[in-house]
Amino acid sequence: NALDEFVSCARGNLSGLRVGIAGVGNIGTKVALRFAERGASVHMWSRNFAKNVALASALSQILRGNGCLTAESSLLDAARRADILLGCAPGIPCIDGRAVGVINTDAILIDVGNGTISADGLKEAARRDLRTYCLTMLPGYEGFVTMWERTVERLETMGRRELTPDLAVVTPGI
Fold first, then answer.
1. Rounded Cα gap, residues 43 and 19, in angstroms
2. Residue 71 and residue 57: Cα distance in Å, rounded?
3. 159 φ, ψ to 5°?
4. What is d(CA 2, CA 84) in angstroms, rounded to the nearest whole number?
5. Distance between CA 118 and CA 58 in Å, rounded?
6. What is the pLDDT of residues 111-169, one digit of tens each?
7. What value does the CA radius of gyration of the chain take, rounded to a whole number of Å?
8. Which of 7, 34, 139, 157 sits a CA distance of 20 to 30 A from 22?
9. In angstroms, rounded to a whole number, what is the distance separating the alpha carbons of residues 122 and 51?
């Protein structure tokens, strides 16, 4: 849902847009169906073409919109003329400079899989001045861990006094 909202803000209506998706596992298939239901022509690619064809066929059976889903045999075919190119492979840098080189000049490049755009892909995106985003949960996890550690540290340095066997007070003033 957050990705859908982000893309809606960045591109508005998806009807008639071409979306390439690299990696059609858990996230990629959900995004493919959602974007096709919003009218996009979705071109899916994964390393396993037979699985990709089966997924595109199955998703097409439950599609409730006027978009379409196509299984592509190569990443270049999925990326070609894309208005949006999404990397959904889990930490696999599969979107390279060649793939970035064939998307539209005003395309959006989005890394959803935490490292799906290779170094030469990022260089090509920068050279072409493409909008490139990395939508990762990692900063959220790091923030949670940092706050947890600070809370534990604070509790360990505060005073603790038992008022009764059933009631204790933790305060920095003891």
1. 6
2. 8
3. -80, 150
4. 16
5. 30
6. 998 889 999 999 999 999 999 998 876 666 677 777 778 777 776 666 656 667 776 66
7. 22
8. 139
9. 28
Integer angstrom CA distances of residue 10 from 3, 13, 50, 120, 126: 10, 10, 33, 24, 18
Q: What is the pTM of this model?
A: 0.78
- The full DSSP string for 94-126 is -B-HHHHHTS-TT-EEEE-SSS-B-HHHHHHHH
With beta carbons less than 8 A apart as the criterion, state whether 131 and 109 touch.
yes
Distances in Å between the alpha carbon of 60 and those of 14, 36, 84, 135?
17, 9, 20, 27
Location of structure tokens 């001045």: 129
Q: What is the distance of C-alpha 69 from the center of its chain?
A: 18
DSSP helix/strand/coil, 157: helix
- Amino acid code (one letter) for 111: D
